[in-house]
Design a protein that fits this description.
This protein is α+β, with helices and mostly antiparallel strands and about 210 residues long. Strand 4 and strand 5 form a beta hairpin. Among the domains are: about 55 residues, no CATH class; about 45 residues, Roll (SH3 type barrels), CATH 2.30.30. The longest helix is centred in the C-terminal third of the chain and has 22 residues. The radius of gyration is 21 Å and the shape is globular. It has a five-stranded antiparallel beta sheet with strand order 6-5-4-3-7, with no helix packed on it. A two-stranded parallel sheet has the order 1-2.
Length: about 210
C-alpha cells in the first residue's frame, strides 16, 4: 500500500516502479478505467515494462470486485489505526499475514512461507504446497462461478439489437449493439454515433415494434 500525492499517470507509475523493481515485473496488471490509468503516459509505461494491461468494464465496479474489496479493507484498517493512535503498518502486516479462503495468506502466496508478526502464532510452516493450494483455490473459484451463473444468468444480446443503457439512475438513450467484446461486455453505438463499452447488466433490450 502506497500513498499517492496526486492522482496522475506520472504519480501512479512512479509508485509502481519501485514495487516492480523490488518483487518483479508482472505479466498482467488489472485496473479500473480511471483517466490516469488509460492515458498516453500510462500506455507508454506499460509498453516500457512489457506487461498486459486489462481494465474493468466502464460503470461496472463489480468487474474489478477483488481490487474494490481490497481497497475497502485497507481503508477500514487505516481508519481504525488512526482512530486508536496505532501504527497503520502493523495493521497492514497482520492483514497480509491472514489466511485467505484457500488456506494461505497473501504473504505466504508471495514468499512461499508464513511470515512472523507481533501476533501470537503457532509454529510457522516454512513452505506450502503450491499445487495443492492452487487446486483448492481453483476448486472454490470454479464452484463460485457456477453458483453465479445459476443465480445471475443473463440473456445474450445479438448484433444490431436495440438497447437502452443504464446510467446509474435510469434507463436512457436508444443504442444499437455492434459486437460482443468478450464474455459480457458489449460495444454499442449511440444515436449520435458515440461508441461505448458496457456490461450486459447495464443494457436493456428494446422490444421490436410491430
Amino acid at each position: 500500500v502506497v500513498k499517492l500525492k496526486h492522482s496522475t499517470s506520472e504519480e501512479v507509475y512512479r509508485k509502481l516502479k519501485p514495487i516492480f523493481y523490488k518483487y518483479e515485473i508482472p505479466t498482467t496488471v488489472r485496473t479500473d478505467n480511471g483517466p490516469q490509468l488509460i492515458g498516453k503516459d500510462f500506455v507508454n509505461f506499460k509498453e516500457e515494462f512489457g506487461f498486459k494491461h486489462i481494465t474493468s468494464y466502464p460503470k461496472y465496479p463489480l468487474s474489478n470486485g477483488l481490487a474494490e474489496c481490497g481497497v475497502k479493507t485497507v481503508k477500514r484498517l487505516l481508519k481504525k489505526a488512526i482512530h486508536f493512535g496505532e501504527d497503520p503498518q502493523i495493521g497492514l502486516l497482520n492483514y497480509r499475514a491472514t489466511a485467505l479462503e484457500g488456506g494461505a495468506s497473501p504473504e505466504e502466496l508471495l514468499f512461499g512461507r508464513q511470515i512472523r508478526t507481533k501476533l501470537p502464532q503457532l509454529e510457522l510452516k516454512q513452505f506450502h504446497n503450491d499445487r495443492k493450494l492452487h487446486k483448492k483455490c481453483r476448486g472454490k473459484k470454479d464452484k463460485r462461478k457456477t453458483m453465479i451463473k445459476i443465480q445471475k444468468k443473463l440473456k445474450t444480446l445479438k448484433i444490431a439489437d436495440h438497447v437502452r443503457i443504464w446510467n446509474e439512475a435510469t434507463w436512457e438513450d436508444d443504442a444499437k449493439v455492434l459486437r460482443l467484446v468478450s464474455k459480457r461486455p458489449y460495444e454499442v453505438k449511440m444515436q449520435k454515433g458515440l461508441l461505448l463499452r458496457r456490461n450486459g447488466r447495464h443494457l436493456l433490450k428494446v422490444p421490436k415494434q410491430t
